[in-house]
Design brief:
The complex is a heterodimer. Chain A is α/β, with parallel strands linked by helices. Helix content of chain A is about 35%, strand content about 25%. Chain A contains ten helices and ten strands. Chain A has a six-stranded mixed sheet with strand order 6-7-8-3-9-10, sandwiched between helices. In chain A, a hairpin with a 2-residue loop joins strand 9 and strand 10. The radius of gyration of chain A is 18 Å and the shape is globular. Chain A starts with a strand and ends in a 13-residue tail after the last helix. The C terminus of chain B is likely disordered. Chain B has two domains: about 270 residues, no CATH class; about 300 residues, ABC transporter involved in vitamin B12 uptake, BtuC, CATH 1.10.3470. In chain B, a hairpin with a 2-residue loop joins strand 3 and strand 4. Chain B has 27 helices and eight strands. The termini of chain B are far apart. By secondary structure, chain B is mainly α. In chain B, the strands form four sheets. In chain B, strands 1-2 form a two-stranded antiparallel ribbon. Chain B has a two-stranded antiparallel sheet with strand order 3-4. In chain B, helix 1 runs antiparallel to helix 11 and helix 22 packs across helix 25. The chains are: A alpha/beta, B mainly alpha.
Chain lengths: ~250, ~650
């Protein structure tokens, strides 16, 4: 595995109507590495991800993807270059069948690769003609990831995969993402609410709160120090915000 | 039996056009979520260019033309280019705008292209030599024309190709995918804009082929083919904007049905008054029934982001401004004569019509394309009321406006269940139905015109003409007073609870309902108010002409009015005044014609200006002026508020840009 990061974010500031929702976020992801982006609701996680793929304009900072700055590339061009975001709504098309999703995902048809991907998600194998809208939540999430893998990603960004899923399914899916990243050399950014599970899978963790990155550590270190993560999460203890400028 | 079959087959020609336009509309709607009201006009333009190319070997562009010497073997490229141009120049810029801006852009395109056709190819019908072999086969003892059968077959094959594209090709599947979740399609590496451009080109091609084929039966006529988009839209709604097979069946059914009605009305027992225009009333009826049955199940596109509607400033009573404007208008009327004064008077009346759009579209957010039908209905009844029934002036006008109000409330019914572009379709169909069934119906409105008795009040003669004076001051002042009263009432309503209720419904119907606003009642009131204002305007148009003909109130005239209302600023009174000034036959038109001799370019200029307004400046001319005024005011205020430090003025300028 090379040491050059496939995704590097420095000083990322992004938001809506000129108001930043995330300020000064920096992280690096190397091939085969999983970075977990953690934080409470409204911390700015999803905005960060959208900014990484160009769906939300940058207000400041830089995003470099596969060694080149994001620049003027449009989101769909990034996707073609191998930067794939699985959004929190799963990005599926309810009235399209699984087979049609597969067809859309692969730029060139490659039956062998398709078979390989599907074998990782045996639940999908027999459902080829079923509409995505009729799948269960777990099946939908598998389809979302399977179609991202079909596009041969170099960077895979997954937003709140566990949303609306039973804990049992999350316990299966998350470690699978970690294995995939290492096996295929994909750089993965995970946004998760299941902190412990995410940190078990990830190499490093970044905690964001109130639109700022407050903590970035090795996943193992974070797992070991639960109090630290908790304080970062709730903005207490070492992470308490000063009350006003005189405080 | 034989005759019936013959007429059914004759209707296939019409059905073929519906298939062509309808499948194009469906494709574009799938790819962009927009309804393209200009689909018929685009196809007509394509067919004209094709006919000219075939007849003379000249390739005609909107500006300029190329003489290719001899007719080329194929002429597909220009239609594809047309589709791309339509997408990149008109549709793509408003992709993220409000539905209103999208409807307005396609209406503007319709006006522009219709005007271009007349400018470039002349107003007359062109006969098109058929390259489909004629002939008949005998079936059940009747001679069945084979040409219609062939044309229908070609269009069915093309529609099947469109279906295959959406079903089996990667691009087509992506188009369907993007219509469900545009962001997800982007994240999979598809450019929705490119998909839409392809759809637009395909739609232009299919539509053009259908018009080329059908025009070999009837000859090519811009108005007729351009407005065939209305029944095609009806067919599209029957197909729930999704299913090509249903669309094909419905298109053929409607074409055959309309043809059969042509047979039916020649029967001796058929009432004379219902002979004309019935074929247009039926699409409307079809649309109404379909929408009532399936209204809520029509698909809407998942929006990728919150769409901002144009700003609405709450109007305030400003006596000084009002008096100033009144005096200025009075002076302008007093110191002009003849055509200029008449143009000013017409502008005043037009601003009332525009105001009816401000009420309905600007405040209530409902898109109606039937306003000119409301105005026309009032005007036509005024003719009967003032001449046949002898009802005196102010009462007759109010009565007729109330009739228009009733009509408006009727059209409000579908608005209970549908909104946005689909409501625009229904109101357009209603407007066309009223135009063809009532205004163009010789037994209801005689072709020699509908005379309207001159108004007089307490012995004061308010006639528009007397002797050689073609535009009397008394009439103009009467119009001014009526306009002022209506605007005053509007300000009262708009600034009160009702105005806020309108705005709430416009912003979010569910939220309005949950905060105690009766949405349906509000909509009915909005439609009623707007139709009443339109009715008054219709009566005034009647008085000013002395007699009415159908031309004053065609659907196209109504679309032009929507255009100027939007151009002026659809959310403000100032906008409606501006709209009056630039409206058709208003003062700007008169000046353009008499000074610049550019009257024939009026519609083209209007259409293009509208496309630009919808894209660049949704608040219209009045809104832009208001922004400028506020900007200047801020600039004047800021420097005096802060101490004059070096560089301070520059900073304020930057700040006020934000």
């Amino acid at each position: 595995m090379s040491d050059a990061p496939v995704l590097s974010v420095s000083g990322l500031t992004a938001g809506y109507n000129g108001v930043p929702a995330i300020r000064d976020l920096s992280l690096e992801v190397r091939a085969g590495e999983v970075v977990a982006l953690l934080g409470p609701n409204g911390a700015g996680k999803t905005t960060s991800l959208l900014a990484m793929v160009g769906l939300v304009p940058l207000l400041g900072g830089e995003v470099r993807v596969l060694g080149a700055p994001l620049g003027r590339r449009r989101p769909h061009q990034l996707a073609r270059n191998g930067v794939l975001l699985v959004p929190d709504d799963r990005g599926l098309f309810p009235s399209l069948s699984i087979r049609e999703h597969m067809r859309l995902a692969a730029r060139r048809r490659d039956a062998r690769h398709e078979q390989e991907v599907l074998e990782r998600f045996p639940a999908l194998l027999d459902l080829g003609s079923r509409h995505a809208g009729l799948l269960s939540g777990g099946e939908q999430q598998m389809l979302a990831i399977a179609k991202a893998l079909l596009a041969r990603p170099k960077v895979l960004i997954v937003d709140e995969m566990s949303l609306g899923l039973a804990p049992k399914i999350v316990q299966d899916l998350l470690p699978m993402i970690g294995r995939l990243a290492r096996a295929d050399g994909i750089g993965v950014v995970l946004v998760e609410q299941h902190i412990e599970l995410a940190l078990q899978v990830a190499d490093r963790g970044v905690v964001v709160n109130h639109g700022r990155a407050v903590l970035a550590e090795d996943a193992a270190a974070l797992l070991a120090d639960r109090d630290l993560v908790e304080e970062a999460y709730f903005g207490t203890g070492r992470f308490a915000e000063p009350l006003g400028e005189t405080a | 039996m034989g005759t019936v079959l013959q007429f059914v087959v004759l209707g296939l020609g019409l059905g073929a056009v519906y298939i062509g336009l309808g499948s194009g509309l469906l494709l574009v709607h799938r790819a962009t979520g927009m309804i393209n009201f200009a689909q018929g006009a685009i196809a007509t333009w394509g067919a004209y260019v094709f006919a000219e190319l075939r007849n003379t070997g000249t390739l005609v562009f909107p500006i300029g033309s190329v003489d290719l010497g001899e007719p080329p073997s194929t002429a597909t490229a220009h239609v594809i280019a047309l589709g791309f141009a339509v997408h990149y120049l008109a549709f793509r810029p408003v992709q993220q705008n409000s539905v209103l801006a999208q409807v307005v852009v396609s209406v503007a395109l319709l006006i522009t292209i219709q005007a271009l056709v007349v400018l470039r190819f002349g107003p007359n019908k062109i006969d098109v030599e058929s390259f489909v072999p004629g002939g008949t086969v005998t079936l059940f003892g009747a001679a069945i024309p084979t040409r219609e059968l062939f044309i229908a077959l070609v269009m069915i094959v093309l529609a099947a190709l469109v279906w295959c594209y959406m079903r089996f090709t990667r691009m087509g599947i992506a188009t369907r995918a993007a219509s469900e979740n545009e962001r997800a399609a982007v994240l999979m590496g598809f450019s929705p804009s490119w998909l839409a451009a392809i759809a637009q080109a395909g739609a232009a091609f299919v539509g053009t082929v259908s018009v080329i084929l059908a025009s070999s039966l009837t000859g090519l006529n811009a108005d007729w083919f351009g407005l065939l988009v209305v029944p095609a839209l009806a067919v599209l709604l029957v197909a729930k904007l999704e299913s090509i097979p249903v669309l094909v069946v419905a298109a053929i059914g409607l074409g055959a049905f309309q043809s059969l009605i042509g047979l039916l009305v020649t029967q001796p027992w058929w009432p004379v008054w219902a002979q004309s225009g019935l074929d247009q009333v039926i699409p409307f009826a079809v649309v109404m029934v379909i929408l009532f049955v399936t209204g809520k199940r029509l698909p809407t596109r998942g929006a990728t982001q919150q769409i901002r509607l144009p700003d609405v400033p709450i109007p305030r009573m400003r006596p000084l401004v009002a008096i100033g404007l009144l005096v200025a208008a009075g002076l302008a009327l007093a110191f002009t004569t003849g055509t200029i004064r008449f143009g000013l008077t017409t502008s005043l009346i037009l601003s009332l019509l525009a105001l009816s759009y401000v009420v309905l579209t600007g405040y209530l957010g409902q898109i109606s394309l039937a306003q000119s039908a409301f105005a026309g209905a009032a005007g036509f009844v005024l003719s009967k009321a003032s001449v046949d029934w002898g009802i005196p002036f102010p009462i007759s006008m109010v009565l007729c406006a109330l009739l228009a109000t009733a009509l408006g409330m009727l059209v409000a019914l579908p608005a209970f269940r549908i909104r946005g572009a689909q409501l625009a379709i229904v109101t357009l169909a209603a407007g066309l139905g009223i135009e063809r069934f009532i205004f163009n119906n010789y037994s209801l409105s005689p072709p020699e015109g509908n005379p309207i008795a001159d108004a007089s009040l307490f012995g004061l003669n308010l006639a528009v003409r007397e002797g050689r004076d073609l535009s009397r001051l008394a009439f103009s002042l009467m119009v001014l007073v009526i306009v002022a009263v209506v605007i005053w009432v509007f300000v009262r309503v708009a600034s009160g609870d009702m105005g806020r209720a309108f705005l709430a419904v416009r912003a979010n119907e569910r939220a309005a309902e949950s905060s105690g606003i009766n949405v349906r009642r509000t909509k009915v009131i909005g439609f009623a108010l707007s139709a009443f204002v339109a009715g008054i305007a219709g009566c005034l148009i009647g008085f000013s002409r002395g007699q009415l003909s159908a031309e004053s109130f065609t659907v196209m005239a109504g679309l032009q009015l929507l255009a100027v209302a939007y151009l002026g600023g659809i959310t403000t009174i100032g906008g409606s005044l501006v709209a009056g000034l630039i409206g058709p036959l208003g003062i700007s038109y008169v000046l353009m014609r008499t000074w610049l001799d550019l009257g024939e370019y009026y519609e083209l200029v209007l259409g293009l200006a509208l496309v630009l307004t919808a894209i660049l400046n949704p608040v219209g001319i009045a809104g832009a002026v208001r922004h400028q005024v506020e900007f200047v005011r801020r600039k004047l205020r800021r420097p005096s508020a802060s101490p004059p430090v070096d560089g301070a003025p520059r900073r304020t300028e930057e700040a006020s840009h934000v």
